[in-house]
Design goal:
Helices cover 8% and strands 36% of the residues. It is mainly beta.
């Protein structure tokens, strides 16, 4: 991986503009803040005011091993399973409206608790029952994902995803991932379509989806 922040990070007075990343960019979080142990990943969005049927957006994540697979069902963290077995990754609750100016949904991660056989945490944004309602990710506005140091609420980076979702005519997208490289943790801004929606992503990662 390319470490764009491998140089010592000297100043604690960070301008927000210095923290912005773009699609495909890789940030070495450990080099940016060597003391980092607990982070909060926040995702925010606004809905198209002209939509007659409100979108119900969800943030989910998958804990993946070196084979790019989950180990068991609890490695899929979402509104019906709010934490993994080790309580390293905790979803802080479902927001069904997207109302408000701050983060709409957040996920807390204790990096020291993430099992050593987990090398990647993938973040997915999806629309609940999007296929039934014929809704797509492309209708979102002012969307972003950001990473904060939980110990002091300092924002480490922000990826504005609004420009990258305009042509995603599906019900889900890969937003970003946290990637482990030895003792280091990297953030990668992904911003690509998740073909087939959340259910297909889960199936690809070895989660068995029960359709009722």
């Amino acid at each position: 991986m390319a470490d764009i922040f491998d140089a010592p990070f000297e100043s604690k007075d960070i301008e927000l503009s210095d923290n912005k990343v773009v699609k495909g960019e890789d940030v070495n979080l450990t080099a940016k803040d060597p003391t980092l142990t607990n982070i909060m990943v926040g995702i925010g969005w606004d809905l198209n005011a002209f939509d007659t049927d409100t979108l119900d957006l969800d943030v989910s994540c998958f804990l993946l091993n070196r084979d790019d697979k989950t180990r068991f069902d609890e490695d899929f963290i979402f509104y019906n399973n709010l934490q993994d077995r080790d309580e390293a990754v905790v979803h802080n609750g479902d927001n069904r409206t997207g109302a408000g100016d701050s983060d709409d949904e957040t996920i807390s991660i204790d990096l020291n608790k993430v099992p050593f056989d987990i090398v990647k945490v993938v973040f997915i944004l999806s629309i609940y029952k999007g296929e039934e309602k014929e809704q797509t990710i492309a209708s979102l506005r002012n969307s972003y994902i950001r990473v904060l140091n939980s110990s002091n609420s300092e924002e480490l980076l922000r990826y504005e995803i609004s420009e990258d979702i305009k042509e995603i005519n599906d019900t889900a997208m890969f937003v970003a991932s946290l990637n482990r490289e030895g003792p280091k943790w990297h953030f990668e801004a992904v911003g690509t379509c998740a073909d087939g929606g959340l259910a297909q992503v889960a199936t690809d990662y070895d989660i068995i989806i029960h359709k009722g």
